[in-house]
């Protein structure tokens, strides 16, 4: 080979290397840690949340990535099973922050494991999104924590008010909750919501997550002869079992399952006993309010998990889009800088409308996502949307 040809080949090779190096430099990865239940009664929530994080990350990449300081960043979702317990939540926290060096938690689920995670994230300057329903994780003491779904203060008051107005004969209600941090904190808010509409709480009982035999508990609930039963933070599969046992005992009161996230989980264990149950964390995707993107992702979710997409999982999608928007506004990928601008942005939510972060009047700091509260009810074996309540605070912000 002649010297000139060799030189040309060398230049071409160097050009390829330079192009590859530029490509590597141009696209950097931001890891999004996920602490979710991937086993047990809450596994569907966790698996679906991981799926929607990945889908949102793919969408961001397809749209050109996150553009900050002349660089392009993309997201990678890393999920670990917290098993809905504080002990496992601590292990997951250590793995994400110490081994994976995660600086952003793209979503976390379960008050007890989230508390364990938060004890590290706030101290080590890691921004955390969470769906946990416990109000104890919110407030000015936790400037790097943001809630990515509606929680009891947003859901329970309108849900219970609706149920009472639709069933004015309700005078008494009995509670049943999982015996953990989530159940305990939900119970406090639910009590206030029922008392606010003039209903007397006649009992408040507890069960261990993972319980499969609810007949003794149902017997106790039925004997109370309460006009309504509120199953609080019980996931759909466990709530369905309780309702099935209550029906077998002849109980015919009003049924409220605030954290029921879809028809499939309830029906799988409760059968026709779930008819007329009011729910506060479910969304329907077969009506006129559903967008093409929602329908598309719902089909993906059903194929992957066997159940419809729900509000818990949507929060993980929305967190990714919120992060992209905030990072580009801040022109920074540092957690503190991103946290500072999150309350200032609006972004496109998977609910098909704009979303933002607020709630300072309720929690003392603007860290609660502002999205619609959707009240649904089982009509036979089908879930039906009854009312969609838009955030008044969000409306005011958009109108400015």
Give a structural overview:
This protein folds into two domains: 26-149 and 291-371, 3-Layer(aba) Sandwich (Rossmann fold), CATH 3.40.50.2300; 153-279, Response regulator (Rossmann fold), CATH 3.40.50. Helices cover 46% and strands 22% of the residues. The strands form three sheets. Strands 8-7-9-10-11-15-16 form a seven-stranded mixed β-sheet, with helices on both faces. A six-stranded mixed β-sheet has the order 2-3-1-4-5-6, sandwiched between helices. With 400 residues, it is of the alpha/beta class. Strand 2 and strand 3 form a beta hairpin. Residues 6-14 and 16-25 have low confidence and may be disordered. The chain has helices at 3-26, 43-62, 86-99, 111-121, 152-166, 181-196, 215-224, 236-248, 263-270, 292-305, 311-330, 335-341, 360-363, 392-399; strands at residues 27-36, 66-68, 71-81, 104-108, 127-130, 145-147, 172-178, 200-207, 228-230, 254-257, 278-279, 346-348, 354-358, 368-370, 373-379, 382-389. It is built from 14 helices and 16 strands.
Briefly summarize what is shown.
With 400 residues, this protein is an alpha/beta fold. It has helices at residues 3-26, 43-62, 86-99, 111-121, 152-166, 181-196, 215-224, 236-248, 263-270, 292-305, 311-330, 335-341, 360-363, 392-399; strands at 27-36, 66-68, 71-81, 104-108, 127-130, 145-147, 172-178, 200-207, 228-230, 254-257, 278-279, 346-348, 354-358, 368-370, 373-379, 382-389. A seven-stranded mixed sheet has the order 8-7-9-10-11-15-16, with helices on both faces. A six-stranded mixed sheet has the order 2-3-1-4-5-6, sandwiched between helices.
